[in-house]
From TrEMBL, chains A, B, C, D:
Organism: Cryptosporangium phraense
UniProt similarity note: Belongs to the xylose isomerase family.
Ribosomal protein recorded as keyword: no
Protein name: Xylose isomerase
Catalysed reactions, semicolon-separated: alpha-D-xylose = alpha-D-xylulofuranose
One Pfam family of this chain: AP_endonuc_2
E.C. code: 5.3.1.5
All copies of domain Xylose isomerase-like TIM barrel, residue ranges: 54-292
Subunit structure: Homotetramer.
Taxonomy, superkingdom: Bacteria
GO biological process, one term: D-xylose metabolic process
Length: 331, 331, 331, 331
């Protein structure tokens, strides 16, 4: 019997929520509850896991109802993402100048971790988008760094049975984020000295931060710290969260190829914001692209590519990839 | 009697409103009504005019109450900005694929124009931030262009006694905006062939769009189309809407110096988004910087600068500016 | 009868020359004469035309020898590009502060035009990469603009039988170029008021200048000013002049599809700088990619795409393109 | 007795050399020998040290003549920079695919180190601008990383009495550099495990790489690895190497203020490329700006700034800096 060999696909639950921005303050659509969003994720048809934001919407929603909704949609919670970037935390979560807000952030993350444990998630995602600074001279950078390292370390020590994945990003909403790139986040993680802290590498964040995402993945994997990935696409100047492969197809292939070559076997996960598109269709399209990439990787002439990379021969390497990917190459 | 010779200062009323973004979906502060925002503008102390978004908050607020609030705060409405970028218009206002939504946008702008007329504004501001495209292959660019030109022209013809100022911007919220830069907007305006359409030049939009804002101002003025300006600052990769002069002081001086040299006598207007700062203080600080710039301009050795520019001597020009601006230059 | 169903391919002759930059000041390879470069172009095998820089290397090389070299390589000169960006012109060609240098630039271009006429080129290419400014306050922008418009106009009037194609670019080597984008260049051209001035649209310049290249092409075509194109690729932050399609495949397809749909029938021309690669192979690879694109365009479901664009349906449009382009899509 | 209270000023000797780029291939001026460049540096009047590229021009120039030239100009060699980015090394120095070229790079650096020892330099500067990759799929990133770490470690071990300072940069001439940012370079240095390897932090590289230079300095200092700095300015999209403070005055002040506050006492060193300006004057201007900054730092209200930073109060912090810096603030 032939078993379909493909990775598990996942998505952040916000993919199916309401989007708001500073212009369309009334939202790109009506509010969406956690249960509704899970049902939409279920409609996609190929998703196996979702990453859930916490608190749920509404906040009083029992965990058991979330678990039921996941179950009826054949979904599992791969992660839980505490919302440490809403109004309480706009001046920072780990790095908030107020100690009481910093404690509040840790309390929220701890509560999320308890729920995550109950749901059996693989990791708690930390996305400290409000942790950083906006203006020159605003911050004492040593203090900001210390707050960040110590805050995450405290969580890692408190929940030794759980994994914490830091999602880095150059900026937004803060003008400058503390965890801005892969190397900086690894530096901080190694300073924490805990085994259960790692990285969630978002392809788009890496891309628009000036990294080569495949290289960033390699670096994180080489130090045993790549806990999860998200994919999407953008125009390289901002985190546009477009559908996978819509702009940077070759680099997306390189990213997934690198993961596979290095034996990284996690979920291929979507972090798209289809502001003006159908959410379910956008997820299906993202998965379609990932499937096409997965198949194309099988067609890559690995020996030839290894030789090309050994020689750092860009033209040869690109020809090999085109051959695997494109349908209309001349002979 | 010696009258203090300085420009009028103004601000967009949104400077004093509630900010929301896709992360802090509950807002950087509580909701703010139009009247409250006007009162905050009044607290600044040096503002003479404001640009009002329309519909008011709440929508049923009578114009007379707005007029009263302005009056008691010694403010005048310089402009009205119809909100053609909220949920109804997320797929475009002038360029929406649906004709009925396009008509709705024109209707909203027309209603705003009527109110503007009642309030005695100088211009109706058009900010078509949702007009454009997000993905390669999404749009028929010729059609998008035509919709934009024809839509604005129709308004200009319908309200010949009013002026319409298009605020261009490279992107956000749309990934690509139709009116993306000064030259492109001038091309469109000249194609419209109406005298009452011009440009609102936002310093920050120009900066992060790769323009030299002073040059952009010169170009618009040379064709008689600079109707208004907004100022703020950013890190050149996004429309950060920071306090004036906090990053690009010299280019801000150049911008205002150019306006003055060319005899442009409009309002010096703030478009800042102090997400995490005190709004009134941020406005005061922006005005303080503008005042310092205004005074520094008086200290510029104009003959020497003209000679330096004639010779395109960058070092000499910069020395002249430093001398006018800095307090601690060595002799 | 079998009509060759593909566009003509071309290349800038500098593709086959010596590259130098501010670090590898001894060059990425040894010096290359014009005749050697033409012979390399001939080796590519699929090139029909080349764009020649002038003066030739060496400067005293007779035009007849160039013509012979072209002939024996089955090549034709589509254009001539006067080098108005070398040492004499580092402070500008059209916009040089010295009138005598400005005249020298016009003289060089005129000499190039004479040679171009002799070689039967389609257009004289103007690439004013040193025309602009570097520092805030350095230039009188009105004067710089005037110099640019009047200089090109003078040429257009002097050579009414020839076409002049301005290649715009945001920057490099000058920090800011006068002819920085498509709209700005069109504004200037329309101000010139001559029929024989148009645009050479370089895909990479457009891309890293924040334009959508297909939209830029549409705009130039709509005004009858698209005289020529160059293609290559980059990482969107600089003019990397990489092999066509190596990063932005979909946007490259969109660009060529737009040209074809609008009936633009010029040469598909390479402007690549394979600094560390084999030049002939890089040209062959660029052409291979263009051929694959040409064939893929034939596979696009045009009716479906027209409907998707009418509805501005990004997901549908992208699906149609993927179907034409990729070999491994799931059913 | 009054001791001159200011830092030592320095410059890279290339500041006074010939500049070439891919357009002005005949150079922005005539060739300049090492001795001529040193004499130009001497003309500046306020320079105490220079960083010398190696091999000298001409290559056979005896070290003793260089030493004499330095002496007669009251200069000292602070560093030596082996040219591991010229034609031999365009495919990489440490990371060249050819082992023999990698050895050649180490040999050149070793020769430079010997000369540096003779001249009594403070550090050997490593600027591996050709080490990296250009295209997706070109390189095996793990191998490139290993080559980089092992190559530098080998040098550090071979010359335990000398210091090696890696100058990182996001890109140019290579599209992507291995040592691209401060965190990544620190990761690599810590992996090397040698005490005599550190960082040369170029303000402009940090700026256009998306870092906050003052934060980058803090991070390097906190790990004892900030060996040297270079300053200049740019438009944040490329390494324009403009005169210090011409665009980002406030961030330059923040950078120097941070160095001083953290007790870092190295040379304030110029890395400017005044392509079209007088080189000596450009250096004098850069120093004038640095002197103005040095004095302004003395005027900063440190207690107030510490309080503002403790509260992360951007507005207050900026007001304090404006007060120290600007001459025309309103009362």
């Amino acid at each position: 019997m032939d078993i379909p060999m493909e990775p598990l696909f996942g998505a952040g639950i916000w993919h199916f929520g309401q989007y708001v921005d500073r212009y369309a303050t009334d939202g790109y659509g009506p509010p969406v509850s956690t249960l509704e969003a899970i049902d939409r994720a279920g409609q996609v048809g190929s998703l196996s896991v979702v990453d859930l934001t916490f608190p749920f919407a509404p906040a009083e929603l029992p965990v058991s109802e979330v678990a039921d909704a996941l179950k009826r949609n054949d979904l599992r919670a791969i992660a839980i993402t505490p919302e440490i970037y809403t109004r309480t935390f706009v001046k920072g979560a780990f790095t908030n100048p107020s100690e009481s807000v910093r404690r509040e952030a840790l309390a929220l993350i701890s509560a999320a971790a308890e729920v995550g444990r109950e749901l059996g998630v693989d990791y708690i995602k930390l996305w400290p988008g409000q942790d950083g600074w906006d203006y020159p001279f605003q911050a004492d950078y040593a203090e900001i760094w210390k707050y960040s390292v110590e805050g995450v370390r405290e969580l890692a020590v408190a929940f030794p049975d759980l994994k914490f994945a830091i999602e880095y990003k150059p900026r937004e909403p803060r003008n400058r984020m503390v965890f801005s790139g892969v190397a900086r986040t690894l530096l901080a993680i190694e300073e924490m000295g805990q085994p259960n802290v790692g990285i969630l590498l978002d392809f788009g964040h890496s891309l628009y931060g000036g990294e080569s995402p495949a290289d960033a993945a390699q670096l994180a994997i080489s130090r045993g710290r790549l806990f999860a990935i998200d994919v999407n696409d953008n125009f390289r100047g901002w985190d546009d969260d477009m559908v996978v492969g819509s702009v940077h197809l070759t680099e997306t292939v390189e990213f997934f190829w690198t993961l596979r070559r290095l034996g990284w076997e996690g979920v291929w996960q979507l972090d798209q914001f289809p502001f003006r598109e159908d959410q379910v269709q956008a997820a299906r399209d993202g998965i379609e692209v990932m499937r096409a990439i997965y198949r194309a990787i099988d067609l890559i002439d690995e020996d030839a590519l290894a030789a090309a990379q050994k020689a750092q021969d860009a033209l040869a390497a690109q020809r090999i990839i085109r051959k695997a990917l494109l349908s209309t190459l001349p002979d």
